[in-house]
Write a structure and sequence with these properties.
- The structure is a single chain.
- The relative contact order is 0.13.
- Helix 1 (about 10-20) packs across helix 7 (about 215-230), helix 6 packs across helix 10 (about 295-320) and helix 8 (about 250-260) crosses helix 10.
- The protein contains 10 helices and 13 strands.
- Helices cover about 40% and strands about 15% of the residues.
- It is globular, with a radius of gyration of 19 Å.
- Strand 2 (about 25-30), helix 2 (about 40-50) and strand 3 (about 55-60) form a beta-alpha-beta unit.
- It has helices at about 10-20, 40-50, 65-70, 90-115, 150-165, 190-200, 215-230, 250-260, 285-290, 295-320; strands at about 1-5, 25-30, 55-60, 75-80, 120-125, 170-175, 180, 200-205, 210, 215, 235-240, 245, 265-270.
- By secondary structure, it is an alpha/beta fold.
- The chain has a 7-stranded parallel sheet with strand order 3-2-1-4-5-6-11, sandwiched between helices. Strands 7-10 form a two-stranded parallel ribbon. Strands 8-13 form a two-stranded parallel sheet.
- The longest helix is centred in the C-terminal third of the chain and has 23 residues, at about 295-320.
- It has a domain at about 1-175 and about 215-240 and about 275-295: NAD(P)-binding Rossmann-like Domain (Rossmann fold).
């Protein structure tokens, strides 16, 4: 199978490329590492991705045409975009519009124009729900975006459904609070682990009572590949998240316990638009994909910590 993965130098995208390449598929990995929130990390990951067997890398900053990208491919996994609630305010609003909405519109248009239309998986976010109430969010719940980032993802979904109405096989995947190896430096667990390893206070937005359906990247990749393999109704939306929500302070307790440290907490001003709770109802994913999250938070944090330590060892060897 010939597959395009956009956002291939990113956190989730690089894992998806690994899985597809490892399964013997031909992968065109597409990204713009220089636009990343962490360009140095993205460039390093980009180099690793480009070295995978069966992978061809295409940097969109070098004027790659969308129609050329999708011509002759069987599947497009669209993971590219501008992530993050915090960075979407102020000037970030226009960037989220450009990298999420405009980029998705152009990609879907190219897929529609292709002689053989590919199936398209589009990454969305639990942020579209706003804060969950007394039960987990289902796919048919009303969306209540609370930030420019979430608004952009609502529009991305609308574009996907419009393309599906016009005959494109689009599947929308709402990811919930993904963590694990290669997590971006701006993300919570990455910041917590690095601070704890350095002996610094852990920077926590608010009082630590906000809770999340923390979902390990390995589970996210499994669900994404299952969605690629299944014959699903065009335009369908599927939650991809852990069934349990965990308070940030409880996650920190697990993390510091795994590290064997007692970390000091440094409270920071809560981020506007940051949901009080995300909570995934995964019954549809189980029904359609046969998918349930397999990695619990405690084991997943051990996995991420091991990755951080391995990076530090590699850096010490390089410097030494």
């Amino acid at each position: 199978m010939r597959v395009v993965v956009t956002g291939a130098a990113g956190f989730i995208g690089s894992h998806v490329v690994d899985a597809l390449s490892g399964a013997g598929h031909e992968v065109l990995a597409v990204d713009a590492p220089s636009r990343s929130l962490a360009p140095d990390v993205a460039r390093r990951t980009w180099a690793e991705v480009a070295a995978r067997p069966g992978v061809v890398a295409a940097d969109v900053d070098l004027a790659v045409d969308e129609l050329d990208i999708v011509t002759g491919v069987d599947l497009v996994v669209h993971l590219a975009g501008r992530p993050g609630v915090r960075d979407s305010w102020g000037p970030g609003r226009a960037v989220a519009e450009r990298d999420n909405v405009t980029a998705t519109r152009r990609l879907l248009a190219a897929c529609m124009e292709a002689r053989r239309r590919p199936k398209v998986l589009v990454a969305s976010s639990s942020s579209v729900y706003g804060s969950a109430g007394r039960r987990p969010n289902r796919e048919d719940d009303s969306v209540k975006p609370e930030s420019p980032y979430a608004v952009s993802k609502v529009e991305v979904e609308r574009l996907g459904r419009l393309a599906a109405d016009d005959g494109l096989r689009v599947v929308l995947l709402r990811y919930f609070s993904v963590y694990g190896p290669r997590q971006r430096p701006d993300m919570a667990f990455h910041r917590f682990v690095e601070a704890a390893l350095d002996g610094r206070p852990l920077p926590v937005f608010g009082d630590g009572l906000r809770s999340r359906s923390f979902t390990h990247v390995r589970d996210v990749v499994t669900a994404t590949l299952a969605a690629a393999a299944e014959d699903l109704p065009p335009g369908i939306t599927i939650n991809v998240g852990h069934r349990e929500h965990v308070a940030v302070r409880d996650a920190i307790a697990m993390l510091t316990g795994a590290l064997g440290v007692q970390a000091e907490i440094q409270r920071e001003t809560p981020v506007a638009g940051d949901a009080a709770r995300t909570w995934a109802d995964t019954r549809l994913a189980h029904k359609l994909l046969g998918w349930v999250p397999a990695v619990g938070l405690r084991d997943g944090l051990h996995d991420q910590i091991a990755w951080h330590r391995a990076l530090r060892t590699m850096e010490e060897v390089r410097v030494g």
